[in-house]
Amino acid sequence: MTEKQIQYRKMLLRKIHEHREYKIRAQYDGWEAYLNELYGVNSSAILTIGELLNLLEIMDGKTDVPVVADGMRVSKKIKRKVDDGATEKQIIAITNLWNSKSNAKTDMSLRNFIDRMFGYKPLHLQDLKKYQATKIINALNNF
Questions:
Q1: CA 72 and chain centroid, separation
Q2: Which of 112, 110, 113, 87 minimizes the C-alpha distance to 99?
Q3: pLDDT at 40 over 90
Q4: To the nearest 10°, the Cα dihedral for 29, 32, 34, 35?
Q5: Helix boundaries (H) for 19-129
Q6: How many angstroms separate the CA atoms of 120 and 116, rounded?
Q7: Residue 104's pLDDT is what?
Q8: What is the C-alpha to C-alpha distance for residues 37 and 34, in angstroms, rounded to an integer?
Q9: What is the largest CA-CA distance in the chain?
């Protein structure tokens, strides 16, 4: 990469890390799962300039189709790496958001909500996958 490309890439990374969407997802430990879902990586530092531009477009709501370095669209049906369980921070965020935004503040009503999203009721919130916890947090933020 040339010096100009390196500077441009750093500027794109700075824009991404200052973006509102990044701050919300990073606050609830959902950034890595979000990148993994879109591009199959855990860090934006691994992405190319084209992928960073595409990520900014997705975050700004201009497009919803992830594109990898060679210009090919990423299929949402691609099997990803085995996902770890939800983090403690995510579980705390789910319970806090549920208690603040829900009319029915019981654990069973939360599990019914999760059942409507994923088709099963988890026995414990720790049984959720990281990407599921991220989707729940996003849904509760949009309540």
A1: 21
A2: 110
A3: no
A4: 160
A5: 20-27, 31-39, 49-60, 88-101, 107-118
A6: 8
A7: 87
A8: 5
A9: 57
**Site of tokens 């009721």:** 121
130 closest CA partner among 79, 82, 84, 97? 84
Burial class (CB in 10 A: 0-12, 13-18, 19+), 31: buried
End-to-end CA distance of the chain: 44
Task: Yes or no: say if 83 and 23 are a contact pair by the CB < 8 Å rule.
Answer: no
Instruction: Report the pLDDT value the prediction gives residue 83, as an integer from 0 to 100.
Output: 56
| Whether the Cβ atoms of residue 112 and residue 121 lie closer than 8 Å to each other | yes
Separation of alpha carbons 119 and 122, rounded Å = 10
Q: How many helices (H) and strands (E) does the chain have?
A: 7, 0
- Would you say 29 and 129 are in contact if contact means Cβ atoms under 8 Å apart? no
CA distance linking residue 46 with residue 39, whole number of Å: 10
**In which band, very low, low, confident or very high, does the pLDDT at 8 lie, cut at 50, 70 and 90?**
very high
Cβ 140 vs Cβ 94: under 8 Å: yes
